[in-house]
Automatic annotation (TrEMBL):
GO biological process: mitochondrial transcription
This protein's name: DNA-directed RNA polymerase
Family: Belongs to the phage and mitochondrial RNA polymerase family.
Residue ranges crossing the lipid bilayer per the database entry: 417-446
Key word Chloroplast present: no
PANTHER family linked: DNA-DIRECTED RNA POLYMERASE, MITOCHONDRIAL
Length: 798
């Protein structure tokens, strides 16, 4: 019965438009592996010891003040030594390779196609009954590639639709936990109690990350493990009022404006017609339109199901406290393990989450809530924090209206109105009917909420914050109001902040708010102004394209290119980005788009070279180092300042082919350590990956020191969250740890590591080895920016 139920659950998740045979096979294979791993865990004798330890661990965590004394890992290890004299972690088992998962899944999918059947006359009882397959295999094109699809029969899809089945079933490994996660104590123990979990996420077939972690000395990884544990022990709860509003819109055909996907019934209808009488051109047009409608329907189904998963999980947890176990990618960037519902999600998902622990707002908490609210709207990005708070006071009527009447009339005022009408009935019955009738129309057409929150950049988080501000403002003493609301502080173009600190760039540091200032600096506007200056000089020289561009150079044109410079965008890629922005301008002469984008990308790169002189030289040094390492047949490795070993997993693709009864399956592995490195990916990815490893280090340091201060801390990469009353403490810690991190000779340490790793034979007369050695030694020079200024910069994170 259990296997039958599992099979039906798999069937119900296949969309009406079909699922890739390869992806479905892999998913089924992974389900088998997870079940196998859990059963193996349960059969092991160590589970009794872990259960005993876990009970004690949770009790220690729950003791008030205990968490600020010892780290979760230390609590667990102390209990292990006291009870059992050493570690009781389970024996490490190897994971199944992707090719095995796919082969196993392929076999099971074939069985499902062959054996699961239904009657063809379910919706036409007069027809002769006949058993037909529920699933069938077909081929279709995705872009230019032909792929195999497993598609449910329309009768089955209609049956599911008519049944209105609302039960969704998820693997435990994709759900938030209803108890605190196991602390990470080693690369192979932590997170879920039973479900298999990796400390480091990796691409399919990549094993080199795990090998590096296991070779590390135990103490080397403790800071990284402890920071993951700090993120994982944060308890959460659901914002039920916001959830109810979102669900009501979801059930009422959604809202594109509010990012609530509509149901498939709202997909564009495409009238069927006989193509026999159409010309070849009309036939082609008909087929293209049909394909467009199918693609749109598939996209709508995918978005709708994604929203359904998130809202269903939130509703399931609406009265619960829950936790998100964390792991990391190969660069050290941290992520919650549950993929569907977590605080890294969209505006909708983030609006649904509150800290389970509440804290009094204190003297500054309400001000931070108001400032955070204006930050979410995106209305006052260029204004000071004081001006943002003042603006919140000025529009308090809109804020309270949004909180009280997010969608429609306030029930309180409506009841009050009908009470007055009821009193009026006693004396003037005939007039009261008209009074009530007119009053109803007045309320429903003129007294609906103004919906100010809907115009914000992040509407749902804005609404949630409006409700919190309203509740706090109306409390008898706002300083004592218990708030569960997370307040965010965002880095200011964080990748460039790290580059400016590495290169000690004075101008660059100022433009990304490493220097104190009265109002926040905007690097994108700064670059746009400098490019405009270059344009004016060229226009005076008579350069035609510079004259054509007059009045068209603004922040929006250069923003994407400036932002992606951190991630290694080339001039070609930057030109395409600028071209897209110019094509969006109706007033720009389109015949000049190519020439203008070519001109502008050169000016943007020139501007960045002036503003971030150290940045460009560091990027070039990293890129060239990676190119030479890859050329020598090696992959790029380094170690973060916190001791996390990193290796770039980019190799040339290898493909394994095997035959099934339905189709030939190709399983591609781009991460096989035995294959030669992919030089292009190795060199292009090194600068952004290195910077990501630094921003993750900064986050981890902040997490560890916030733990010492006894405050809640979670992050979405370069966006840090805490309670409203502890924002000032977190801000102080965040700045101190950034200065502490970049006070280390990071580039010099990297240089020394690369020399020791790749230049074993320093006496070699091989020209390539000597060239590589000289390159590693030639660390870029830095400027004169004083890092201590960061501690006084209000808008470094704000």
């Amino acid at each position: 019965m259990e296997q039958y139920r599992n099979m039906l659950q798999t069937l119900s998740k296949i969309p009406p438009t079909g699922e890739s045979f390869l992806l479905l096979s892999q998913d089924v294979g992974m389900k088998i592996y997870n079940r196998f791993s859990i059963r193996r865990q349960l059969q092991g004798s160590h589970m009794d010891r872990i259960r005993s330890l876990y009970n004690e661990y949770v009790q220690l965590l729950s003791k008030e003040g205990q968490i600020s004394c010892l780290l979760p890992r230390e609590l667990w290890e102390n209990s292990e030594h006291e009870k059992f004299g050493g570690s009781c972690s389970p024996r490490v088992h190897s994971t199944w390779p992707r090719s095995l998962l796919v082969q196993l899944g392929t076999h099971l999918v074939e069985l499902m196609v062959q054996t699961i059947k239904l009657k063809n006359n379910m919706f036409s009882p007069r027809s002769e009954p006949k058993l037909i397959p529920v699933l069938y295999h077909m081929y279709s094109f995705r872009s230019t590639r032909q792929i195999g699809l497993i598609k449910p029969h329309p009768i089955y899809s209609q049956m599911l639709l008519d049944a209105g089945e609302t039960l969704l079933t998820f693997e435990t490994s994709v759900m938030p936990m209803r108890c605190p996660p196991l602390p990470w104590t080693s690369p192979h123990f932590g997170a879920y109690l039973l479900s298999p979990s990796k400390l480091m996420r990796s691409g399919e077939g990549a094993v080199q990350h795990q090998l590096l972690l296991e070779k590390s000395s135990p103490g080397q990884l403790f800071p990284v493990l402890d920071s993951l544990n700090q993120l994982g022990i944060c308890a959460w709860r659901i914002n039920k009022p916001v959830l109810d509003i979102i669900v009501s819109i979801f059930n009422d055909k959604g809202s594109e404006k509010l990012d609530i996907p509509p149901p498939l019934s709202e997909a564009p209808a495409f009238p069927l017609q006989n193509t026999g009488s159409l010309s070849s051109w009309d036939k082609l047009s008909y087929q293209k339109e049909q394909a467009r409608c199918r693609k749109k329907a598939a996209e709508m189904y995918s978005l709708r199901m994604d929203a359904l998963y998130k809202l269903s999980i939130a509703n399931h947890l609406r009265d619960q406290i829950f936790w998100f176990p964390h792991n990391m990618d190969f660069r050290g960037r941290t992520y919650p393990c549950p993929p569907y519902f977590n605080h890294l999600g969209s505006d909708v998902t983030r609006a649904l989450l509150l800290f389970a622990e509440g804290r009094p707002l204190g003297p500054n908490g309400l001000d931070w809530l108001k400032t955070h609210l204006i930050n979410l709207t995106g209305l006052k990005k260029k204004n000071s924090l004081q001006e943002r708070k003042q603006y919140a006071e000025e529009i308090m009527d809109d804020i309270l209206d949004s909180a009280d009447r997010p969608l429609t009339v306030s029930l309180y005022y409506l009841l009050d109105y009908f009470y007055i009408a009821y009193l009026f009935i006693g004396c003037h019955f005939s007039y009261s009917i008209a009074y009530l009738f007119i009053g109803c129309h007045f309320f429903f057409f003129f007294s609906q909420g103004r919906k100010w929150w809907m115009e914000a950049d992040e509407p749902w988080q804005t609404l949630a914050c409006c409700m919190e501000v309203a509740n706090a403002s109306r409390s008898p003493d706002p300083t004592k109001y218990i708030s569960h609301f997370p307040v965010h502080q965002d880095g200011s173009c964080n990748g460039l902040q790290h580059y400016a600190a590495l290169g000690r760039d004075e101008i660059g540091a100022k433009s990304v708010n490493l220097m104190p200032s009265e109002t926040p600096q905007d690097v994108y506007s700064g670059v746009a102004q400098q490019v405009e200056g270059f344009r004016q000089i060229d226009a005076k020289k008579g350069i035609k394209i510079a004259q054509v561009l007059e009045g068209f150079i603004g922040r929006k044109v250069v923003k994407q290119t400036v932002m992606t410079v951190v991630y290694g965008v080339t001039r070609y890629g930057g030109r395409l980005q600028i071209e897209k922005r110019l094509r969006e301008m109706d007033s720009f002469p389109q015949e000049y788009v190519w020439e203008a984008s070519h001109y502008l990308v050169q000016q943007v790169f020139s501007s960045l070279k002036e503003m971030f002189s150290g940045t460009r030289s560091i990027q070039h040094w990293l890129t060239e180092s990676a190119r030479m390492i890859s050329k020598s047949g090696n992959t790029v490795e380094w170690v973060t300042p916190l001791g996390l070993p990193i290796i770039q997993p980019y190799h040339r693709s290898k493909s394994v082919m095997f035959h099934s009864n339905l189709q030939t399956v190709h399983v591609t592995n781009k991460n096989d350590a035995n294959a030669r490195p992919d030089t292009m990916k190795q060199k292009n990815a090194f600068p952004p990956n290195f910077i990501h490893s630094l921003d993750s280090t900064h986050m981890m340091l902040t997490a560890l020191h916030c733990h010492r201060h006894g405050i809640t801390f979670v992050s979405v990469h370069d966006c840090f969250w805490t309670h409203a009353d502890t924002v000032d403490i977190m801000n102080k810690v965040c700045r101190e740890q950034f200065v502490s991190l970049h006070s280390q000779p990071i580039l010099q340490h990297l240089s020394q590591f690369l020399i020791e790793k790749y230049c074993h034979n320093a006496q070699s007369h091989n020209p390539e080895n000597l060239k590589m050695l000289n390159l590693f030694r030639d660390v870029p020079e830095t400027g004169s920016f004083d890092l201590e200024h960061v501690k006084d910069s209000t808008y470094f994170f704000s």
